[in-house]
Amino acid sequence: MSRASRTANELLLGEWACLGVIAQKPSHGFAVATRLAPTGDLGRIWSLSRPLTYRAIDQLVGRGYIETRGEEPGIAGGPRTMLRITRSGRAALNAWLALPVPHLRDLRGELLLKLEIGRQVEVQQTAMLKEQRRIVDGIIRGLEKTVGDDDIVTAWRLESAEAARRFLDRLD
Asked: Within this chain, do residues 63 and 41 fall inside the same structural domain, yes or no?
């Protein structure tokens, strides 16, 4: 999806992850990149390289979702630019956190990221989880109607959907 064709609410998952990190407290790009590294707390769910993290931050600044707020001395090198979420960034993040994930294939990345960021920024997600369960139940009903004895792909999707339902039940 090109930058020009995306609307204001159509952020990439990495951009949402960066916004979620900065929503917790003002931060600088290196700290955001550390949390989104494969070994970081959010990077375990959705990781970004340092260059992609800085690109996502630039996108968020360009959309007015985060803004720069001064500098702090860097440990090695020059000063670090501090970033904080804006009112419109907070509204966009809260709206995104309230939306269930429509596709089964996106539960592992997007839903887990929403749940963890929601927990960290203390956003109530009960209604979203209820709607997510309704969506997964619908997927299961549809798959049960179409799975055949030799249809391994649909059988796999059905097993994945049932595992997702068990996960959602565990959260309830």
From this structure: yes
